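User: Can you predict the 3D structure for this chain?
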Amino acid sequence: MQLIIDSANINSINKLIEFFPIDGVTTNPSIIVKEQKPFLPLLKEIRSVIGEERELFVQVIAKNANEMVEEAKFICEALSGNVVVKVPVTMEGIKAIKQLKSEGIRTLATTIYTPINAYLAAKAGAEYVAPYVNRIDNLTGDGAKVVTEIIEIFSRHHLSCKVLAASFKNVQQIHNVSLAGAHGITAAPELIEALVEHPSIKENVEKFRKDWFNQYGNESLFLNITR
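Assistant: Here is the predicted structure, written as structure tokens:
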């Protein structure tokens, strides 16, 4: 299962790349605007941090399919490395996904709220779909169930599109879509860090270190090799 950072903050991305097995970075217009930087230099800086192989997801903002396609081409020409263009699942977006597929440009269909949204995008040629788990939950739906049903539809109809679950508020939602079989998750930096947070972990580590110190008088394994 892929682990993707949903952020354009360079410091956060740097930190998570150092500590976690990260597969890429997703951005959207709101995330980029939040950084208050020129967008193209920011995207190039993200690329320099994550390297050429990790996927960088960048979203179009046009509403018309032809303009979406032109924006997608601009994104792919302007950025090096492994780029995936995010396209919303409007009618114009589905049209754009079809055309981009024919031109060899990889896409992620975003703003997915129903399994049928995902089906249409996958059939049009999207490589990924991104169901909005927490936003679905907030609409009195069940985000994890939507993910489950998307995966079932893809499996039954032999669609190779991957489910990259998005929009999380807590770790439990990530847990739920992982059990549902999502091919990946994209989450904010604080949620990725929360994946290793548990009070018992800290307590256990401190107990191990205390026991070691009481016996050997220091907290280094290597200083005690000859003892």
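Residues 2-196 form a domain with the TIM Barrel fold (CATH 3.20.20.70). The beta strands are 2-6, 24-26, 55-59, 83-88, 107-112, 128-131, 162-165, 184-187.
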